[in-house]
Amino acid sequence: MMIKTIEEVIQAKIYDACIRKGIDRNNVVIDDTFNLIESGLFDSIGLLEFLISVQEELGVEVDISDLDPEEFTVYSNLVDLLSQHTSR
Predict the structure, then answer these.
(1) Residue 27: helix, strand or coil by DSSP?
(2) To pair with 12 at 20 to 30 A between CA atoms, which of 34, 49, 55, 68?
(3) Could you tell me the residue ranges of all domains in the chain?
(4) Long-range contacts at 79-87 (CB < 8 A, ≥ 24 apart)
């Protein structure tokens, strides 16, 4: 089994959200500034479910309760945050 990078895990889950929302994934550009909430793909509950799913797949646990929301809603910040908790 091939181990996915943090970026691959996050991107795959974003594209899964596109499918659920009926959005053509080719119209979604995931760059460093991509915002999970502002994109319209996730509401607050959906974001929490997304974060739990990503953490489970990566085998990490990150307490976001004391973080600035931008630390986990912006793609590059989320990658950096998760990178601090895993070796992928």
Answers:
(1) helix
(2) 68
(3) 6-83
(4) 79/6, 79/7, 79/10, 82/6, 82/10, 82/54, 82/55, 82/58, 83/6, 85/58, 85/60, 85/61, 86/6, 86/58, 86/59, 86/60
- What predicted TM-score, i.e. pTM, was given to this entire model? 0.90
Q: Distances in Å between the alpha carbon of 72 and those of 2, 23, 24, 41, 81?
A: 26, 22, 24, 14, 7
Look-up of token digits 């630390």: 71
Please report which confidence band the pLDDT of residue 66 belongs to, taking 50, 70 and 90 as the band edges: confident
Per-residue pLDDT at 23 exceeds 70: yes
- CA–CA gap between residue 17 and residue 68 (Å, rounded): 23
Phi and psi dihedrals of 35, rounded to 5? -110, 120
Class of domain 6-83: mainly alpha
